[in-house]
Amino acid sequence: MKDESFDMIEAEVEDKESVRPLTKIAPAQTRAKFSSFQVLTIIVALVMTSTVSFLGGVIYDRRTGDAYSEDFQVFWETWNTVDKEFYGDMPSRQDRVYGAIQGFITTLNDPFTAFVVPEQADIHRQFMSGKFGGIGASVSIDANGEPYITRLLRGNPAEKAGLEPLDVIKGVDGQSVQGLTLDQVVDLIKGDVGTEVLLTIYRPSQDTTFDQPIMRAVIEELTAYSGMVGDIGYLRLSSFNAVSASQTEHELQSLLDQHPRA
Fold it and tell me: Is there a smaller number of Cβ atoms within 10 Å at the N or the C end of the chain?
């Protein structure tokens, strides 16, 4: 049986010619209360709506998972076959996972998109920031596997200490670097700003070996260079990082101030 107050309001609406604002209905009518059955019905409806929405999310996720499973079926079949049948020395699971990720990145054919393993991520982030604690020298590996200095950053500790391009790094803080990778050597040289690093240097031009202490400083890698050849200006950008844009702007303005012909 309907609530009486609702019957009266309903009658008001049905009689279009006598519609009045609800505020003018008698106080007893405006204080109408929901019956227990109506309240229960509303609660059940809300719960069912939430349940359907939630189940919809679960069903959607499950379908998404099934789609991923189908996409990766060939991958996992290959993985399991190699895992069981490969006769050689099997790389670690982590190396295989990294290799799979690297293979995916390679398919993008984009030289500016790369996967960096977590062990090298901190070094990479420092490099991309353009600032780090170091000595201000670029290092490479020669044909004999020895690290050597390729370039000195102007005004930085390595240049001030008298190091030169082609100087070979034999040791860092008394530790031989023979057999180390380039990343390992660079990691030894870098450190907290204000700390000292001792490099053992072999200088081929003088056939001498010596120890050179260098104080680490905040290094801002110079990626933009400019100069004049006659009345022709040139601008060189060696790499990209967080400070490349500001350095390029500075070098370009320096060129324009010299009024180059081209």
Answer: N
d(CA 153, CA 136): 5
| Residue 121, number of CB atoms within 10 A of its CB | 10
- Does any domain span residue 240? yes
Query: Per the structure block, which two tokens stand in for 198?
Result: 């001792």
Residue 192 is assigned to a structural domain of this protein: yes
150 plus 185 within the same structural domain: yes
- Residues 187-213 have pLDDT tens digits of 899 888 889 999 999 999 999 999 999
Domain that holds residue 97: 75-106
* 261's tokens: 């012909």
Each residue's pLDDT tens digit, 94-123: 888 888 898 889 899 888 788 877 767 766
User: Is 37 inside any structural domain?
Assistant: no
H helix count then E strand count, the chain: 9, 10
Whether the CB-CB separation of 166 and 148 falls below 8 Å is answered with: yes
pLDDT in tens, 247-257: 788 888 888 88
Helical ranges in the chain per DSSP H: 4-14, 27-30, 36-71, 73-85, 93-106, 118-129, 157-160, 182-189, 244-257
Dist CA 18 CA 131 (whole Å)? 79
